[in-house]
Structure formats: structure tokens, C-alpha cells
Amino acid sequence: MRRVRLIVAYDGTNYCGWQIQPNGITIEEVLNREISRLTGENIHIIGASRTDSGVHALGNVAVFDTASSIPPERMAYALNQRMPKDIVIVRSDETLPDWHPRYQDKITKTYEYHIYNAPAPNPLKRNYSAFVSFPMDTEKMRKGAEYLVGEHDFVSFCNIRTNVSDTVRTVHSITIIQNGPDIVLRITGNGFLYHMVRIIAGTLIRVGRGFYAPEKVKEILEEKKRTAAGVTAPAAGLVLVGIDY
Amino acid sequence: MRRVRLIVAYDGTNYCGWQIQPNGITIEEVLNREISRLTGENIHIIGASRTDSGVHALGNVAVFDTASSIPPERMAYALNQRMPKDIVIVRSDETLPDWHPRYQDKITKTYEYHIYNAPAPNPLKRNYSAFVSFPMDTEKMRKGAEYLVGEHDFVSFCNIRTNVSDTVRTVHSITIIQNGPDIVLRITGNGFLYHMVRIIAGTLIRVGRGFYAPEKVKEILEEKKRTAAGVTAPAAGLVLVGIDY
Predict the structure, then answer these.
(1) What ranges do the domains of chain A cover?
(2) What's this model's pTM, rounded to 2 decimal places?
(3) Do A120 and B10 touch (CB under 8 A)?
(4) Which residues of chain B have a CB within 8 Å of the CB of A122?
(5) CATH number for the B2-95 domain, one of 3.30.70.580, 3.40.640.10, 3.40.718.10, 2.30.29.30?
(6) Distance, CA of A9 to CA of A15 (rounded, Å)
């Protein structure tokens, strides 16, 4: 038996998120099914990040154990022949038998949140961005974002339906890139609470519109309750870009 | 009666192109249906560009005549309430009663052809780009593209199932923009033959891969037959960006 690691990209539009659930098709389910068919084993993958329904990934990570004779590096190619077009194995390799994609001393996750900011929506971006028709001031968004960088209790930016008790996380950086009507928030940290990136995006969108002053972000952090922050921005704008170990 | 002009954006993935046809749903058909329902008239729009199945637009142009009391500028908003999410009216205004979107003294069309160039495909771009896994040399592509700029007989870059007799067109510019794995060919001209942009893209992809020398583009132009050029690149990569009059 050896442990194979996969870097997985997917368009989350037509999936009920990563994790297997009774009421709809998920990424995990499709991966288990196709890997099992390929190797002839009964495979249950372990994923790094349980993305929500409609959320995308360019570099989620998963592992599984197999006795298959297919070389681990060739697994990506072999699986991509069978996978639906909206799930792609970007890379595969062998890892240590006890390597776990969620429990590691050092993990850095990078997410992007995409906003399309124009008078009318762009149909090509409807599944990959949040549409905002109000003019946005990205300089104000950058000022607001600065308060979030560093180690903080992010309980105000966490959906109340969470089962974690420790809500302290470290955000390494938030970069805001504007290219015409496209605004991208790129956020890197050691871990993110349930809906944290989408609540940060929803809050910074309010800052960009002038509905909140940039300093309001600091107050929200200090208030330490979810109702203090802005709304949760739509799932479609969120992409898990990658995970570094 | 007055003539209303629409700027139309659409994701062509799920449509059999612009023009009404018996075997599938088209952009023109949806526009006729929704404008007719809105105004209570029997509307037949006139479009500027009959894009193919799977081809996208950010700025196609169409006109229709109506006695509706809805102000022409408000038509976009009113129609977007009814339109499927993959078709958006970007703008609407009133134009002269005899203004025709195809027959004008001066027309400049801009297309973009999108290539995703990486070892593995990107599922988020599968409907909006051609995937090329071989390394590409964009400097060579730029050299090859230079031969196409200017007034030429583009018969080598025209699908043989065409009904035009004059195959001379003027390409004003071809710009090749690379941003990591994303390569965009932006091409502007006074008009384009059937499949012309996709055959140019297919030919320049061969140049980028090193399969054709840049000078081969000149030879193809001079040979004046379709079989001389590269394959037609996939529809998904093509976007009609806009039309200037």
C-alpha cells in the first residue's frame, strides 16, 4: 500500500461542495467513485479543505491509499481520462504513509475572492464572481483589509454554525488587485473559519461602496460577534487557489 | 415606431449560436421571445454578428422596431429581469429608424481568442478558452501575427462553407497578451470571414508550439487556399468583444 497525493482543481458550480452528503453530488463522491473504478479498490479519499457548494478550487489537496500498480505520478493522467470536465487532477505524487492533508505543523492556504464591478453583469463571469454595480473604491478596501492582517480572534467573521471553539487565526496578507471591472481579493493565512473569506469579502465590499468606513473593520473585529460584520458574499466568487505545507 | 439598439453580452456555451435554426436554442430566438413578451409585439431583431455555437460575446449589437412606451434607455433593465442569466443586455438606446447594424460605412470589430497554456487544464476556463499543454512561444506568435495585419485576401483563413465572394479584409491589429498561463489574442479589423479568427488562432497556436515557423503565416496567406492554414481553434476560446461604428 502507498499513499497518493492529488492536487485537485474544480468548477464548483454544479456540485454541492466537497464533502459527501445525501442530497446532491459532491467533489469527494466523484473522486471516490472514479479512483475506485480505476484501481478496483474501495477508495475513500481524505481532503484538505471542505469547500462549500458553488465554491471553486485550483489547488485543493487529497490523499488515498492504494495497492494499485499505476505509478503515483501517472494517476493524474489516468484519472483525467474518466473525470467529468469540471474536475481536473492537476498533479499526483506519492507521499508518506501517515501524511495527512489537514493535520500538519505548518499550513498556508490561499484564497481569491473575485468581484465583477460594472454597471451591467458579465454573463461569462456569472459563476465565478460576485457582481457589484455600485462604484467601488479599492483604496478604501485596502485600508479596511489592513486591520485583518495578523493574528486575531476572527469570531465576527465566522458563520455561527461552526463546531470549532478556537476562533483565533493568522492572516498573512490580503492583496486587492484591480484590473478594469475585475477586482480580486487575494488572502493568505494559516487557516480560515467557516465562511470567513466570504464574510471578509462581504464586509470589504461594503467598505468599497462607502457603506462602511475602513475603520469599521477594526470595530467589527473588536466586537467579537458575527452580527457585527457584513453579509456573506456569494459562493461563486470564491476560489481555493492552493495550500502550502 | 422607433428603432431601439441593444448591446448584448452572452455566454455562448449552452446556445447553438446567434442565428435562429430549427435544431436548437439560439441567442436570437431568446431575444425575440423576451422582447416580444415585454412589448406585446411580434419582434424580429436584426443582429450585427451571427456568432457560432459556443462562441461568446461581450458586445454584439442588435436593433428592433417598437411602438412600446418603455423608454429605449430602460429597455436593457426591463429585459434583464426576464432574460436567462447567460444573456445580458449591457445597454440600450434609441437609434435612427434606418440604422442597420451590419450595413454601415465604417465598422470595426474586436475579437479576443483565449488560450489556457499549462500542463493540466483549468476547469474554470474550460468553456472560455482553448487548452494547450505544449509550451508556447508568444514572441514567435507575435512575429507570425504581423504578416496578417493590413489589407489581404484572407481566403486561406476562411471556412470553405462560405457564401461571400470578396474575401479581402483589413486587419487593423493583432495583440498577444500573456499573463501566466493565460494567452489572449486580441484582433481588430473591418470585418471577418467565416471562422477567420478561429483559423488565425489555430494557425498561431501552431506557430507558438514551434510546429510552424512564423514565416509560414506569410506563405499561407499567399497560397490562397484553406487547406494551407492550421486547424480551426475551438469555439469556446472566442469572444466578440465589441463593434465600433
Answers:
(1) 2-95, 108-244
(2) 0.94
(3) no
(4) 9, 58, 88
(5) 3.30.70.580
(6) 13
